[in-house]
Amino acid sequence: MAVRRRTRRPAAGLEVTAFINLIVVLVPFLLSTTVFTRMAVLELSLPARSAGVEQLKVDDLQLEVVIRGDRLDVADRIGGLIESIPAADGRHDLKRLSALMGELKQRFPDKSRATLLAEPQTPYEQVVQVMDAVRARLDANGAQLVRTELFPDIAIGDAPQPKRS
């Protein structure tokens, strides 16, 4: 009887050359096509709920800017409407808003809070543009532009329904 002997074969080696070549080509390609984005984050807060009867101060300003489809209403929560800025050709007058914010900042230099109230159908771009006009403005100082801070602490909320007359 013939006995068959098993011969030991050497273990087969793992061929990774093709995989390494793929990685060498793929990594630079992925790095070159990556889009790096820059995000700017603004800290916003919700408007505080009024406790009903607040301590009324004569020189206290609680600034509210209400974005309506046809106008911007700038008001003091305690004192009422300061100015209503009508929109022209479907665009809000941000230059007039910025000028009014500058006037209010001169009268109340220690105030930095403002509440921005927008109607639900207000486009995001309009909210950002109004927010930028309330936060700061650029003033010409000789040959250079100087950024003047107005009301940087902004709270955002929903606009109240307009009163029907």
Tell me what you see in this structure.
The protein is an alpha/beta fold. It has a domain at 63-158: Nucleotidyltransferase, domain 5, CATH 3.30.420. It has three helices and seven strands; from the N terminus they run αβββαβαβββ. The strands form two sheets. It has a five-stranded mixed beta sheet with strand order 3-2-1-4-7, covered by helices on one side. It has a two-stranded antiparallel sheet with strand order 5-6. A hairpin with a 2-residue loop joins strand 5 and strand 6 (144-149). The model is unreliable at 51-56 (pLDDT under 50).
Describe the SSE topology.
Elements: H1 17-33, E1 63-67, E2 71-76, E3 80-86, H2 94-107, E4 113-118, H3 124-135, E5 136-141, E6 144-149, E7 153-158
Parallel strand pairs: 1-4, 4-7
Antiparallel strand pairs: 1-2, 2-3, 5-6
How would you concisely characterize the structure shown here?
Helices cover 26% and strands 25% of the residues.
The 3D shape can be described as elongated
Q: Which oligomeric state applies?
A: single chain
The N- and C-terminal alpha carbons lie at a distance of: 115 Å
CATH topology of the domain at 63-158: the name is Nucleotidyltransferase, domain 5
Helix content: 25-40%
Described by strand count, sense and barrel closure, the largest sheet is: 5 strands, mixed
Overall SS class: alpha/beta
Based on DSSP secondary structure assignment, what is the total number of beta strands? 7
The CATH C-level class name of the domain at 63-158 = Alpha Beta
Total helices: the number is: 3
Low-confidence parts? 51-56
Order of strands across the widest beta sheet?
A: 3-2-1-4-7
Q: State mean pLDDT (0 to 100 scale).
A: 81
Our Rg estimate from Cα atoms comes to 31 Å
- H/E element order: HEEEHEHEEE
**What's the CATH architecture of the domain at 63-158?**
2-Layer Sandwich
Share of β-strand residues: 25-35%
